[in-house]
Design a protein that fits this description.
The protein is of the alpha+beta class. It has 9 helices and 28 strands. The strands form 4 sheets. Strands 14, 15, 16, 17, 18, 19, 20, 21 and 22 form a 9-stranded antiparallel beta sheet that branches. This is Histidine kinase.
Length: 390
């Protein structure tokens, strides 16, 4: 098992083709995962990559991709590549367009394609890694589960753009666009370490979702949802109560769904209020009527320090005799925007803390992962890490 990462900053197709050819010729990866700025010509990549036997997908990331290795520390790569070289493993990528079928069916179809591509019939993968269109992630995850069951961990993130304007997209060997599900199945020859968490802590304030429609909170504690949320956050969205975007404001005070683990500890799956519409709160993940939602709080310091802890937690879950050799990390775009330029200090700290350990990933509009209770979930404002080993 060997991991190589690369940052490509070129804007012209000719220079991009030259750089990509150099990467693929020298490395011959078993799997290629990439993330790039939505302004980058991602659609040109499949023809440039060319090799029909290489499983890959490349997805857009808010304000560019993150990369931290010996040569690069950047939070705004035009294109960052994570290359898995593992001759003894097996890997496959599949895709489907949710505009051509239901999200559930498209999820199942994409995963079935990936499994066929990996050529490991009747064997469950060690990991499913995905890039999803924002909006129906829960249904897509259910589609995955319908194929492989609930025991296979599902990690990844929802595509993002720079302005929440729907300009996100993913490209694979056979498909490209804003409604594409891309999924990779991994059968690595060495163990993986997995961690999924957030950088927020709970307050004592609990709101019950008393009236809900999917991702729209109509009432909290039997009160108009926007008013209830505004009251418990001391007027945080007072200027938007008649309607409007609140994404940046609420990044510091999301809502958390408590998940109790077998050992009695509680994790929180976060739900990010995105806008106010006719008194309702629109959020980026599904809430069930009757659920308790805990008001959470976070700071720039907590969000930048959490990345190191999540990676370290994943490393600690590796067998004692295994050495970490690479990290795929998901970092929420909302957190990225909240911490601002401090993201660069965070990546610099990661380079010092995990020297010679390449770390690559996107800033996403939704995060998929699994807590220690073994259940796969979709959340917001989350951070995850998958650590490869040798």
């Amino acid at each position: 098992m060997k991991i190589q990462t690369f940052a490509l900053q070129c804007d012209e197709i000719e220079s991009l083709a030259s750089e990509m050819a150099s990467v693929l010729t020298n490395e011959n990866p078993s799997l290629l995962i990439g993330y790039g700025n939505t302004d980058f010509p991602l659609e040109a990549l499949p023809s440039i990559i060319g090799d029909s036997s290489l499983p890959f997908f490349i997805s857009s990331s808010c304000l560019g991709a993150l990369l931290c290795d010996d040569d690069t520390v950047s939070s705004n790569c035009n294109l960052a590549l994570f290359c898995v070289n593992d001759e003894s493993g097996a890997y496959g990528v599949g895709s489907a367009d949710i505009s051509e079928s239901s999200p559930f069916e498209a999820g199942a179809t994409a995963l079935q394609q990936a499994l066929a591509s990996a050529e490991r019939p009747y064997e469950s993968p060690a990991l499913i890694w995905c890039a999803l269109p924002p909006g129906d992630e829960e249904s897509i995850l259910e589609g995955f589960v319908s194929v492989v069951g609930e025991k296979v961990p599902i990690f990844g993130g929802s595509m993002a753009d720079n302005t929440v304007s729907g300009n996100w997209r993913t490209v694979t060997k056979t498909s490209a666009g804003p409604q594409i599900i891309a999924v990779a199945v991994l059968y690595p020859s060495t163990p993986l370490g997995l961690s999924y968490s957030s950088g927020y802590k709970p307050t004592e304030t609990v709101l019950k979702a008393t009236k809900v429609q999917g991702r729209k909170l109509l009432q909290l504690n039997n009160e108009q949802a926007s008013m209830a949320y505004n009251n418990v956050t001391n007027g945080l969205i007072a200027d938007q109560l008649n309607g409007g975007q609140i994404l940046g404001l609420t990044s510091s005070a999301p809502l958390g769904k408590p998940v109790e683990l077998d050992n009695g500890a509680v994790n929180y799956l976060l739900c990010h209020p995105d806008s106010v519409e006719s008194g309702a709160l629109n959020v980026f993940s599904e809430v069930k009527e009757g659920e308790d939602l805990v008001l959470m709080e976070g700071s720039i310091s907590s969000l930048t320090s959490r990345a190191e802890r999540v990676i370290n937690n994943a490393i600690m879950l590796l067998p004692e005799n295994k050495k970490p050799v690479g990290v795929l990390m998901i970092y929420c775009a909302g957190c990225r925007l909240m911490v601002g330029d401090e993201i660069n200090s965070m990546l610099g700290s990661l380079q010092k803390r995990f020297s010679s350990l390449p770390i690559c990933g996107p800033f996403t509009f939704g995060e998929q992962g699994r807590f220690l209770d073994g259940m796969n979930r979709h959340g917001n404002l989350m951070i995850s890490a998958v650590v490869f080993s040798q």
